[in-house]
Protein 1
Amino acid sequence: MTQQILQRETIAAISTAIVPQQGSIGIVRLSGAQAVAIAKTLFRAPGKQPWDSHRILYGYIHHPQTQALVDEALLLIMKAPRSFTREDVVEFHCHGGIMPVQQVLQLCLEAGARLAQPGEFTLRAFLNGRLDLTQAESIADLVGARSPAASEAALAQLQGKLAHPIRSLRAQCLDILAEIEARIDFEEDLPPLNEPEIIQQINRVVGEMSRILATADRGELLRTGLKVAIVGRPNVGKSSLLNAWSRSDRAIVTNLPGTTRDVVESQLVVQGIPVQVLDTAGIRQTEDQVEKIGVERSRKAANSADLVLLTIAAEDGWTPEDEEIYHHVNHRRLILILNKIDLVAQLPPLPPLDNLSQIVKTSVPNNQGIEELEQAILDAVNLGNLQAANLDMAINQRQEAALTRAKTSLLQVQETIRNQLPLDFWTIDLRGAIQALGEITGEEVTESVLDRIFSRFCIGK
């Protein structure tokens, strides 16, 4: 992909989601040296509208050969370097829907543009110095954000909240390397190396790396969300709990055992974390073939969930059936929900349970226990203080791996110093740390890594 981009071909793609009868505007974007020329062959602006940069023209898109009218549209021109890609960029703002944008895109391709590959506009922005790699990745996170907190973290990273400290750490490592290499090359002309000061500098860098690495789990949850499965016997109030929690009638509720035959999903946001809640069929022995399939799917949902909400009814207490279900799911992180507490005067005794995070008491008719349940979920995944957490930084898996390598390299430098090895040995791992930090921001990155990152983007971004 990178070699093609270096040839500076003009690329084109649809840059908005196209859903029939759902979008009023559809955008076709071009970037490259021929973008404006292609636009002039397709677009007619009535009157004396100037084709200046950063102006919007009104007019009509025509087929260049047949002169057939294709669409009434707006044309936005952004000439290099004042554009997202730092190349000439043109956008056709067409009527929404499938046909107008597809027809305009096809005309752009026939006029000499090439269909953009996934993420190629953002890749060009990176290669042309418009963005660093952390900012480029944040764009994909922003587009895919599933909660306000995820959007906030992506925007912070787009503003350089991760790039700035990473560049600072890399600069500090380069300064340390320069000090050491100067002593190697000009040992007789310089005072001895201040070893304690070097050790202190490395300790400060390692400490800052540890602080950034601590955001990895939060970043992963913000991007992918949390999968939570509500499991239990029939008629313990699982579906009622889901309806109360989601403030909807997602699940059918009756007094008949086996009403829920399949897994019912609901998408919620708990203090900024996207949560996929799975209301499962009641787990029990049954001869009903359809219900059997639902029970098996319930077990699979529990096994795939990040967290299991084992629900029992306070009026029944802990039953042998509850014990059997518990043994099926006790290898997962568990929260025990004691539901229907409004139906009893005294809460039933519970046996000691392993791998249990918390016990939450709920009463759906009284809307009791929902807030406690949400807090218990965050506590179970070590995010109990999320609202007070700093969301300016939430690194992804690639960034975490590179930063971990950099930290390991610096720890190895410390070991080398303790073992009193020659200065040449110090520089080996220092260079490794510098390279790993450069991979995060893109100062040192291979073409294969770029292809892997940008292939996850949508076409047109």
Protein 2
Amino acid sequence: MSAESPSTLLGGILRPGPTREGDSLAATGRAGRNLPAAITTGVVLVVIVAVPLFFYRPAFVAVVMLIALAAIWELGGAFARMGVTLAVPALYVGTIGILTCSWVLGPEALLFALFLTVFACIAWRLADPSASSRINDVVSSIFAAVYIPFLASFFVLTLKEHENPWILALFVLLIVGNDTGGWAAGILFGRHPMAPRLSPKKSWEGFAGSVIACIVIGVAGVHLLGGNAAWGLLLGLVGAAVGTVGDLTESLIKREAGIKDMSSLLPGHGGVLDRVDALLMAAPVLYLITSFALDGRS
């Protein structure tokens, strides 16, 4: 089979077609994933994110930007399966603008960049004579602008304002704890489904495991960063609750689109958005809590 031409590849990037379910790697455990592939991919991701985060922060902003752009592409493919066309080119440019403004200029410029992105999404769809469902496309594009680049900008703002990479590391550990605690408790004790129509494997027992893991990580992390343990308790509770809502939000999108994973970009994990959904949803509230909990201590 011949390789795709540059024009075809560019077209697939600027106007993603409906996501196609690829052949999944053979599962090696009850989690339904290929654990060797998942672990290998996870290690690579940690290196790609952690090295620039701790050694060259502008490069970390670039990594966040690339992750957000990949997530926009995945979301475009998922919505295409539902007959909705996102204003992907406008979203790409808006993502770069929102995250750049967050890093260089701060929150006020970020909000103006979000407004410009929304305006560009509306203008893009109005100018497309082939669009048959413009209002659905516009509303979905605005949702994408808020869901991905706007929420992702809070990681950039946190690093800009605190200049302490360990705060962002705490964010990631909280969400890892949310996933791991929920998975372990769900496997061992899960009996009562939490949202069976969206995510059959999630249980209330698993959510309790998520809360416990996040509280332990939150209290320990805030204490080590010089804050009051009570803030760590709040951080853990909110991290578990909002992170779980983030997981279920993406599950809702995938259920509506009829797909298991957003893409196959990350072997053993699925898509980029499959890995950062909870992080995105939790970022604003974690940013707000740490702004109070660690004010002047970072």
Protein 3
Amino acid sequence: MHAYRTHNCSALRSSHVGEEVRLSGWIHRKRDHGNLLFVDLRDHFGLTQIVSETGSDAFKLLDGARVESVVTVTGKVVARDDETVNKSLPTGDVELVADMVSMQGPADELPMPVFGEQEYPEDIRLRYRFLDLRREAVHANMMLRSKVIASLRNRMTEQGFTEFQTPILTASSPEGARDYLVPSRVHPGKFYALPQAPQMFKQMLMVAGFDRYF
């Protein structure tokens, strides 16, 4: 069995009931129901509900772990009761009964929670951007942006266009906008400029005879 996971946190279905599997991810949230502890385990792909019974070693570790701690959970997949099925989750028909839990990275108290959709000031979100990027809406936006860009690239390529990457450092040009300058390490006292637009490089491509490009 893989050291960290056999499946991701959005992969388990009813067809996996009875199998022993291993998942790794962040503790998204916890719910203590007396004799049972329910943990939503999250990774890049989704959520899986973990169940642990009072008195087990797995319960002690999960009960003491803060949210956003990274854990590896090994256990058996079981079907949920009809009244506890969560139709809003791809993994909502099953849960994982924890037999063994390993702590990979304990979390301290968070400056801003990941679970929920509360609004926070921009300076807090930017200071703790690594936490902000874990939040569901922000994560979804990042994935949507990636898919849109990939789709645009594919559509352009299918129509005979070629993608070129133009330099991000160049000599300063006498344009109207103010340059952003980057000091050179190999030429003391000299500076590179961040191009205000790829216009000059695009014109070079045109003169050189490249056909359709982006």
Protein 4
Amino acid sequence: MSDNKISRRKFLANAAALSSALAIPSLVMGTGSSCSGSTRQKRDARIIGANGRVDVAMIGIGNRGKDVVKEFHDTGLCNVIALCDVDMGAAHTQEVISMFPGVPQFRDFRNMFDKMADKIDAVMVATPDHSHFPICMEAMKLGIHVYVEKPLARTFYECELLMQAEQKYGVITQMGNQGHSEANYFQFKAWKDAGIIKDVTAVTAHMNNERRWHSWNPKMVSYPKAEPVPTDMDWDTWLSASHHHDYNRDYHNGQWRCWYDFGMGALGDWGAHILDTIHEFLHLGLPTEINPLYLKDHNRFFYPMSSTILFKFPERENMPAVDITWYDGLDNIPQVPEGYGVSEIDPNVPAVAGGKLKPAKLNPGKEIYSETLTFKGGSHGSTLSIIPDEKAREMEAKLPEVPESTSNHYANFLLACMGKEKTRSPFSVSGPLSQVFCLGVISQWMGEKLIFDRDTKQIVNNPLANQLLWGAVPREGWEEYYKL
């Protein structure tokens, strides 16, 4: 086994050390259902959809999952054969349930696989970040193709294991950074291949819009108090491999994204839609330094209200080193370059609100600085433009033709399951991108600069931060998901 692989023994040993090192109440292990003795039958990963449709089980069908289910259904390329959500009785899941009358319903993905694994060609996973890993790992072990919303997983080595599983089990995979199947992807590739984008040395990325966030006290000294679990909810399965938390409404329905234990904050939420093409086509890989330059209301429970994080990537493949500076927060607006213009300024934000000056907001996006050109862009599928306008006019005749996408991100996955296309964001591509965000999250939690060894995939200047690459010990009964 190479240095870049992680064994189950090493994972558990490092995670156990982390539990001791952190020594906070949240790391007391709870109980969970064991998958030992399962009757699930592994199927060979194979090309399917001979009848023009892929049989898909939808896992996570409320809130964001509802939108993804509809997108899959609208392709006309899949049959929805199972619905799974821990909150199956909640109002936010009812619309999808009503769309597919008679389709089997489950609250626990493990029960679904026990009963239907041999019938499922692929799964769509749109659950909270912390539960991506065990669902995806179990599906891949069963030879089932996987589409999962971003970010890929919550910890660095969960991403690592999912990339290894993709290779071992030979399944089709796709992460839900939808811009990878839209104009942004094809333009960036065409401009890079034509030498328009070259010698990039710096990138500014920003997400300063309001988001599903919170107004909790950053000086809190404990997690929220227990509340009654909703009657229709399977809270134990919602917790997944995470250590036990008593139910509280502030963990649920999007609020999970705010807590270190469950989500990846603004960086994990939006980074995959802003930095995806930069990361892939500039071959950035993993950074050597991650430095949290600014953290507003920093605490150990949930993400800062605002963050500025500097990622340093080394020289590679005849390309210069690149610094990426990430900004999030309503009051943490980066300085834009000369000639930027005002097209990205949100017109819906008044200059004065409630008698107090309110800062301008930039739409989520990026600025890319090379030795000769400056580009500005947005998120998801929005394309780049050259700034200032005079330079854009000068370059217009040199810009290559950009091909149109043959399929959106959902159709691309389904067509790949049929053997007709290749996925544009498989785990081999989206895994290292997600690992960049995992490193950024560790720097936010620690509040310290991290030095990362790209060869050994270790944080070398802080032992506690290095343990966070693994995360906490999985709850009893969930350890098997960390074994390939």
